[in-house]
Amino acid sequence: MTVNRRTLLGAAAAAPVWGALPYRSARAQAANTIRIGVLNDQSDLYRDISGPGSTHAVRLAVQESGITQTGVNVEVIQADHQNKADVGSTVARQWMDRDGVDLIVDVPTSSVALAVSGLVRERNKVFINSGAATSDLTGAACSPNTIHWTYDTYMLAKGTGGAMVAAGGNTWFFITADYAFGHALERDTSAFVTAAGGRVLGSVRTPFPGTTDFSSFLQQAQRSRARVIGLANAGGDTINSIKQAGEFRITRGGTKLAGLLVFVTDVHSLGLETAQGLVLTETFYWDLNDRTRALTQRLGAMPGNLRPSMVQAGCYSGVLHYLKAVRDMGVAAAKASGAEAVTRMKAMPTNDDAFGEGQIRPDGRKIHPAYLFEVKTPAESRGPWDYYKLVSTIPAEEAFRPIAQGGCALVRS
Amino acid sequence: MGLEDLLFELQMAMPQVILGVINGAFYALLSLGLAVIFGMLNVINFAHGAQFMMGAFVAWMLLAYVGIGYWPALLLAPLIVGAVGVAMERLMISRLYKLDHLYGLLLTFGCALVIEGLFRNTFGSSGQRYAPPREFQALNLELGDFFLPGYRVWVLIAASTICLATWLVIERTKVGSYLRAATERPQLVQAFGINVPLMMTLTYGAGVALAAFAGVLAAPIYSVHPAMGANFIITVFAVVVIGGMGSIMGSIVTGFLLGFLQGLTEVVYPPFSQTVVFVIMAVVLLTRPAGLFGRA
After folding, report:
1. Where does B92-218 have alpha helices with state H?
2. Does B273 sit within 8 Å of A211, measured CB to CB?
3. Residues A380, A383, A384, A386: is their CA dihedral positive or negative?
4. Can you give the residue ranges of every domain in chain A?
5. What is the DSSP letter of A252?
6. Is B147 helix (H, G, I), strand (E, B) or coil?
7. CATH class label, A159-282+369-399
8. Angle formed at CA A385 by CA A380 and CA A390, multiple of 5 degrees
9. Given a cut of 70, is residue A26 above it in pLDDT?
10. Residue A178: closest CA among chain B residues belongs to which residue?
11. A43: helix, coil or strand?
12. Which CATH code fits A31-151+290-368?
């Protein structure tokens, strides 16, 4: 937000002088400059999982790509989309039409991501989405200019839903945020639960936004005698649900809570006392292996003293790979056609410290393994941010929706 | 459906209704503060949600930075946030008394945005945790399937007591009568030698302290985060409108009543549970524009 506001103020102040000198000299430089715009939530509920931390991660990727040593300039700017599709669209349009942005990264909140994906396609730039969940980005709404990098609703549903049934949680009750995202997550998870031989006993739709007390819904879930309560919500809703489930001892009879979209920062906010035993799926955890630990160390102090989330790791990994493609094909070619740049990225295997080896499918889905984690008990945790124990690894080929099932038009050819 | 079935359904819904009434306690406490401020100062205090949030945050800060626990915080946090309110009133709000309500509303709304922004920048968006004190576990109620945490019982007791005490002070004491007189005829009351501006300042501080008190009560239940007040305040404004702007008893009764109705809706048709408050508001505005307890 700060940079955006500063840019705006600067632009307003400089407006009368434009058309004269500064603009021209900027133009002359622009041909050899890659501009990356980090567009995400800087002020509301997704700030901690994306926000300034994503920009921080992108800057590290630029530095480590080594592209600047080859004489190419890379500029990173950021803006707040306030989780509103209209605000996000306006910023994206300005960036691409006026400021010469070549790549837009992050963009949590599915509605904003879908809008930005359309705009990027029209202008033939590149969109690497890390923050949004909807699997439509590589399904019905797939685009030759968009890569969905980190996770999606299908992966979350399969990871957590499938695993919990396999572990004996064969009856489910959903607490669902009453809007598109919640409905999609409930639908996808239900499909996995029933496919694995489980049953869905019922669900309750909670008003969104504005619900703060989930105790009544939790008790309805408990009364259904389901073995698993699936939380098809996100952010503050999930935190309050889990917190109040602890307060009302919902899990005392052996009922398990399944957080369908829980980030490590949510667990940090809840504390292990409350979050222990929670099962969740992520594609990145800072303490997963030597490579993720090394990356976390290189990232250093993240804004807000947090550890990197999978969304921020995805921003790092996506930009690193993009800059590899730019080096490979040349700045001029990469700037000329976003679709060409994406094609080049798809042709190259990915390999970085965040997700290890992977690849990008023709439909724009970046694939890598997903991990089912269980939140540790306070006794098991050995230090700050030691929150997860690995339950199982879902191989890259199985973690995401099979390419033929997505209905992406790019795949049929 | 036979009578027995109906009784059974009612019995099953009881716990939810009790929870609703407890949530109603928060509505009552918050709308009471708004009613006190509006009734005495004619200011629509849009910063009330932010002040509620500050109450929760101050309690959390007292524990995290200074090691001061829940009980002292219950007194200290309202005092600290109330003092901030007094400063706000002196520096800004007092300059707007002679103008239209709208100016006070815009000013306090702006203040709320600034305060929430500052907290978000400093503490992030995921929220801080504040564990309920252990001693409330003795109050835990367990009836078959139904489990009521002791802390919620305490919330009900504390909020009802404070609501009743505030009502008594304003309606039944000498200070309260000065206050009420000062709203009607400030010049005349001033002429009797009572410092009306000081009384207004302290009233605003007291209203803000009520919000902060609710914030401390809420801290162990909800995640302590910058937007926690914004989530509440919309409903609370509807409560104030239904009860009648500025009516002390109206806001208390309506707060509990709407909590009860919301609890019932959460059982019957959950997706409607936020909307029900606004439907009632619309009906009340159409039939009794001054509110259930207001004087036109």
Report:
1. 101-123, 150-172, 174-184, 186-191, 196-218
2. yes
3. negative
4. 31-151+290-368, 159-282+369-399
5. G
6. strand
7. alpha beta
8. 55
9. no
10. B271
11. coil
12. 3.40.50.2300
Listed residue (B39, B60, B109, B51) closest to B78, CA to CA: B51
CB-based contact, A378 to chain B, within 8 Å = no
- Whether cis (ω within 30° of 0) applies to the bond prior to A402 is no
Q: Best residue in B153, B266, B275 to probe A by mutation, most A CBs within 10 Å?
A: B266
B226: helix, strand or coil: coil
Contacts of A335 (CB under 8 A, 6+ apart): A31, A34, A102
Distance from CA of B95 to the nearest CA of A (A): 30
The set of residues, in sequence order, having a beta carbon less than 8 Å from that of A86 and lying 6+ positions away, is: none
Tell me the Ramachandran region of residue A177: left when phi exceeds 0, alpha when psi lies from -120 to 50, beta otherwise. beta
- Model pLDDT, residue A17: 39
Q: Does the beta-carbon distance from A219 to B19 stay under 8 Å?
A: yes
> From first to last of its 296 residues, what are the pLDDT tens digits of chain B?
567 777 777 777 787 888 899 999 999 999 999 999 988 888 899 999 999 999 999 999 999 999 999 999 999 999 999 999 999 999 999 998 888 889 999 999 999 999 999 998 888 888 888 988 888 888 888 877 778 899 999 999 999 999 999 999 999 999 899 988 888 888 899 899 989 999 999 999 999 999 999 999 999 998 898 988 987 888 899 999 999 887 889 999 999 999 999 998 988 888 898 899 999 999 999 999 888 887 75
List CB contacts (< 8 A) between B271 and chain A.
178, 205-207
Beta bridge mates, A126: A103
- What residue spans define the domains of chain B? 30-119+129-225
Higher local confidence (pLDDT), B145 or A386: A386
Question: Is A159-282+369-399 the same fold as A31-151+290-368?
Answer: yes
Complex prediction ipTM: 0.83
User: In residues, how long is chain B?
Assistant: 296
How crowded is residue A5: how many other Cβ atoms within 10 Å of its Cβ?
11
pLDDT at site A25: 45
Distance from CA of A346 to the nearest CA of B (A): 35
Tell whether A241 lies on the interface with B, counting CB pairs under 8 A: no
